[in-house]
Amino acid sequence: MDLKDKITTLKGIGPKKGKVLSEHGIKTIEDLIEWFPRRYEDRRRETPICDVKQGKDYLVCGKVISRRQSGNPYNKRAPLSLLINDDSGMIEIVFFNGKYLSGAFNVNSKYSFYGKVSENMGRMQMIHPEFHQYGEKGDIRGIIPVYPTIEGISQNEMRKIQAQVSPAIESVREWLPENIVTEYKLADPVFSLKNIHFPKESRYVLMSRFRLVFDELLTLETGLIYVKNDNAAKKNGIAINTGRSEEFINNIGFKLTEGQTRVWSEVAKDLESTGVMNRLIQGDVGSGKTAIAEIAMYVTVCNGYQAVMMAPTEILAKQHYVTLTEAFREYNLKIGLLCGSMKPADKKEVLDRLGTGEIDILVGTHAIIQPGVKFNRLGLVITDEQHRFGVEQRHRLSEKGDDPNIMVMTATPIPRTLAVILYGELDISVIDTMPAGRKPIRTIAAHQEDRGLVYDKVRKELVKGKQAYVVAPLIEESEKIDAKSASELFAELQKLFKDYKVGLIHGSLPQEQKDAVMDAFVKGEIDVLVSTVVIEIGINVQNATVMVIENCERFGLAQLHQLRGRVGRGNDQSFCYLIINNETDIAAERVKIMCESTDGFQIAEEDLRLRGPGEIFGTRQHGLPEMRISDIVRHADVLEKAKNAANSLLASDPDLRSTDNAELRNRIEKMFGGDIRLEI
Ligand code: ADP
Ligand code: MG
């Protein structure tokens, strides 16, 4: 068995299972070995039956004293019920649809069972436990790995597969330089891989996990720092004269906030230098990131270059298109729009004008990464709401120019310490002030039975000529089903607000319809916009002063904050009503935080505390490669160490050309896929 062998060479993995596994990135024996358990069940000690409590998992061992197939014995679905006892007590084991198991147990023989204990009319039960003949080979006792769920492959199957490939681990060689192994006290890779799957002792798990997390984070950090150094080393970047920024700023219609001024000066410094700008602009919703983008685009165009701005959705791209057209009208700049849904003829026209250099600024969606899109002289690449884009997409966009400057804008508030690590390849600027005159949004929680009162308040705003958003409950992660709930709400509100125009938007509508609805809302032709979360990001309608979120308990904190950020964008007092339908503790806490704070960074910290890191900082979401074993938040301490090690490795071998670092280079390429080319 070789590490590079295909998994389909294994016993028990045919084409069907092979396909399921490969969908999870598992194609070779090596991939399997790197499919790490998520946690372990400690089944070393058996619990005397009298000590088990309901709701927890236990290992119990005992003799079968009775075996009963209840119901009609010819019915395959008839449950099988066993009574088990040890020296201390008795417990019932139940298998529904259990007929197929009736031959598996002999009365008076001893078995081990592992599962959750429940109580049924005063009697302790285990339903569908794992079981095995007591003391036989393959007993379910020990420290048992629990793998990430893969539909179609049971835990037991995965354990058997892992046991099967275990011998192949022997051929793994130490791949890190000796000084790093010694300095960070790393366990041997063979030991670590063996013990992460089938630990002999629980302390071995800790040693092994440390080693493997270190490996993964070292690979990540080395890759990120490599890209960053590589960018910094590019001396042939474009130097932009930013002198004309003043005329634009003086004419922008408001006074830049302190935060905007500082961030602009940081951006200007990058632009002026001959290095390549690679900067992340973080700022809470409504902090005015677009203004910074506009100034940067303006000076870039004044220097004879083109600029491009990529947004994650068509709605957002179109909105930017309108805003920029407006902002640059009197400067006579030509703005172009490119979206996937445009007619081929329209696309072609834009592409032609882009190629000749007639268009100064292109705005669009992913469509602008396509190979056919060619610029004349691209000098600045901006991506908005960056967490929807990956490292790779950014690379592809910047390759359309000759090392253009890069600016990435995000409203996802990430605690700064973490951002430094996450965006290792980017410099970071934070707009930490809000435009003056903004009144903090008033957030009010209401129970389901008070919905009527909430909509009375909405009417009050409508009477004043203001507009409202109503977000329909998030039913599940399916736009189709969410759309249905939005449609029902729409029908209800149409009746309620007969004298007003109510609109509906959701993700399953055809693009043109979505655009038409958004357009009408922006123009004020729609008073109440019912929507699913499609409006979550970026939309800017200053006349909208009310946000109603139905079934707010369905949304996470960060999401609620983003949604709320759609209002309060002008100078009028805005309101956010959170309607609670099902008040769990966590929902109550979220609502409390929302009512007390409008600070995105604080909310992000609270979100982290309530939900745990994995969910929010899902690495995919941030455009980083998927991690197998590490969690950048939970393993922040290891990350710090890995970063130091990465720096020292790159200091002595900047291009990772030495044969000692060949395996590290392989790992980086595997982790980042096409995103990183380590030139050899
Ligand atoms: P975001 O950071 O969420 O992208 P925008 O750039 O869309 O925010 O700005 C939100 C609104 O605030 C826009 O209407 C913009 O014109 C306005 N704005 C931006 N900066 C200022 C400022 N310094 N003073 C007043 N209004 C501002
Ligand atoms: Mg924005």
From TrEMBL:
Gene3D superfamilies, per the entry: Nucleic acid-binding proteins (2.40.50.140), P-loop containing nucleotide triphosphate hydrolases (3.40.50.300)
One BP term from GO: DNA recombination
Pfam family, one: RecG_dom3_C
Residues covered by the Helicase C-terminal domain: 457-609
EC number: 5.6.2.4
UniProtKB keywords: ATP-binding, DNA damage, DNA recombination, DNA repair, DNA-binding, Helicase, Hydrolase, Isomerase, Nucleotide-binding
Origin: domain of life: Bacteria
Catalysed reactions, as listed in the record: Couples ATP hydrolysis with the unwinding of duplex DNA by translocating in the 3'-5' direction; ATP + H2O = ADP + phosphate + H(+)
Keyword Transmembrane: no
Ranges for domain Helicase ATP-binding: 270-431
EC class of the enzyme, as a word: isomerase
UniProt-listed PROSITE patterns: HELICASE_ATP_BIND_1, HELICASE_CTER
Coiled-coil annotated residue ranges, if any: none
Gene Ontology molecular function: any one: ATP binding
Function: Plays a critical role in recombination and DNA repair. Helps process Holliday junction intermediates to mature products by catalyzing branch migration. Has replication fork regression activity, unwinds stalled or blocked replication forks to make a HJ that can be resolved. Has a DNA unwinding activity characteristic of a DNA helicase with 3'-5' polarity.
Similarity annotation: Belongs to the helicase family. RecG subfamily.
Protein name as catalogued: ATP-dependent DNA helicase RecG
